[in-house]
Specification:
This protein is an alpha/beta fold. It has helices spanning 23-27, 36-49, 63-73, 92-106, 125-138, 152-160, 182-190, 223-234, 238-255, 259-268, 288-292, 301-312, 365-370, 401-418, 439-450; strands at 5-9, 12-15, 17-20, 53-55, 78-83, 111-116, 142-148, 165-171, 193-197, 273-279, 350-352, 358-360, 375-378, 381-387, 390-391, 394-395, 426-433, 456-461, 471-478. The strands form four sheets. An eight-stranded parallel beta barrel has the order 3-4-5-6-7-8-9-10, surrounded by five helices. A seven-stranded mixed sheet has the order 11-12-13-14-19-17-18, covered by helices on one side. It is globular and about 70 Å long. The relative contact order is 0.11.
């Protein structure tokens, strides 16, 4: 049997099982760095077996250095990496410095795939970072641009805005099937592919845990195992996981393979999935022979139905792809964001006036020209001005009414956050559209973002000032008193 490969983008062919190097950071959590030459030698067997693609990141300890060392030893190796900046704005120089740092660590002149992670959609600086990365791609420092943990709405928005994204790396497994709906549709529409991580849920989706008691979430587990134990609890608990494992074992028995094989093959056969990322622990136990078996069988209709049925009895992981890094419940190793970020800066600058009012500005040129604020807070009331999909000199969302609506709501949310509130505090919205044909796309986007808030709403067809704008949104919010 041989490892399947997939064309991820022009000039970039990846193995459908990619070697994830996140465990390097786990091995180095005591502060002792791995020896790059020794670690690279330990990974050569993966390349010899056909698993020639390695997924690293700027925050995976010395993973980029190890992968680069291996790539110099083995010509077939492709190194993918990520940039996960701190929340808030990054200048063009800072973005380029981050890319240059990865280039040096990997030891190449061009990164095969640079994947970007956004922390806070209400802060539009995440788009600035992507536009800067797109410029660096055009200059030749990056071959292809990807994202990681972007939700369906914002992946669609970025693509409609002209950012050349080829893939999105997301959590996808029998335990977490969030990418199967809206994300799959966005990928189909735009021709984007998915790289799936968490496919074995830190090893919990394997024969090792079938019939065993639930382990406590503590330092006896790896970071990955701690993370996915939280997923298990969110999905309904350990007994529900055991039901999935038993179903996978029944399928595995019919096929003569392992539970891990079944779990991995299930994701590989989902629409839009280019490959699954399996942890490659430098110097640790290798599962190469078992991983090779992924390419020796397929799942028939009966097998897929049995697995789908067991997975459907789990409680859905809340939100969309990547939401575990943006809002509670934080399904991370620590159960919060303490391992990742220290603070979230205000999306927009705020000025406090002598009249006791606070004013937020989103920085568009028209606020200064026309003399208005994006939002004004007086006491517990906030009024957000008519907001379009403008960001600096750019129109975000292209000509798509839904994408424009989502970005306008992001700006509303950013203004509210800057003034100590959020979308949950909104009591009224007004939507203005130019083209009657856009009403449903705009209404659906509004419904997606406010379905739990349910503010009073008015939808009006009218003329809009400015070329290309399809929607404008006003909002009013009332900040509720904090419980004592």
């Amino acid at each position: 049997m041989s490892v399947e490969h997939r064309r991820l983008a022009p000039g970039l062919r990846v193995s459908r099982v990619l070697n994830g190097l996140w465990q390097v950071a786990d091995q180095e959590r005591d502060g002792a760095r791995l020896d790059p030459e020794e670690a690279a030698r330990a990974l050569e067997a993966h390349v010899e077996a056909g698993f020639d693609t390695f997924d690293a990141a700027d925050h995976y300890g010395s993973a980029e250095i190890i992968a680069g060392t291996l790539a110099r030893r083995r010509e077939a190796v492709r190194v993918l990496t990520k940039w996960v900046p701190s929340p808030g704005a990054s200048s063009r120089a800072e973005v380029e410095a981050a890319v240059d740092r990865s280039l040096r660590r990997i030891g190449v002149e061009r990164i095969d795939l640079l994947q970007f992670h956004a922390w806070n959609y209400a802060d539009p600086s995440w788009l600035d970072c992507l536009f800067h990365l797109a410029d660096l791609r055009a200059e030749g420092k990056i071959l292809h641009l990807g994202v990681t943990n972007l939700d369906a709405v914002h992946l669609d928005m970025a693509l409609h805005s002209g950012i050349p994204i080829v893939c999105n790396q997301v959590c996808y497994s029998l335990l977490d099937r969030r990418p199967a709906t809206a994300m799959a549709e966005v990928c189909r529409t735009h021709g984007v592919q998915l790289l799936a991580y968490g496919t074995l849920a830190g090893g919990l989706l394997s024969d090792r845990w079938l019939g065993r008691a639930a382990p406590p979430i503590d330092d006896a587990l790896t970071w990955s195992q701690m993370k996915y134990r939280r997923f298990v609890d969110q999905a309904g608990g350990w007994d529900r996981l055991q039901e999935v494992l038993r179903a996978a074992r029944r399928v595995a028995d019919r096929l003569g393979v392992s539970v891990a094989n079944v779990a991995g093959r299930y994701v590989l056969e989902q629409p839009g999935v280019a490959g699954v990322i399996v942890g490659a622990r430098a110097g640790g136990r290798s599962y190469l022979e078992d991983n090779l078996r992924l390419f020796d069988f397929s799942l028939d209709g009966d097998a897929l139905a049995e697995l789908d049925g067991a997975a459907a009895r789990l409680d859905p992981i809340p939100g969309d792809c990547g939401d575990e890094y943006r809002r509670p419940p934080y399904l991370t190793a620590a159960g919060d964001l303490s391992h990742h970020v220290t603070r979230f800066p205000s999306p927009y600058p705020v000025r406090h006036g002598s009249d006791g009012r606070a004013r937020a500005s989103s920085g568009t040129m028209w606020e200064e020209v026309a003399g208005f604020s994006r939002a004004v807070r007086a006491g517990n009331r906030i009024w957000v001005a008519g907001t379009t999909a403008t960001h600096g000199s750019r129109l975000i969302g292209g000509d798509d009414a839904g994408a424009q609506t989502h970005f306008a709501i992001d700006k509303v949310e950013g203004a509210l956050n800057s003034l100590g509130a959020g979308l949950a505090d909104v009591v009224r919205t007004r939507l203005y559209i130019r083209d009657a044909a856009d009403w449903e796309a705009v209404a659906r986007a509004h419904g997606h973002r406010f379905r739990e808030v349910l503010p009073a709403n008015t939808l009006i067809r009218t003329g809009l000032v400015g070329e290309g704008y399809r929607v404008e949104i006003e909002a009013e919010a009332e900040v509720r008193a904090s419980p004592e």
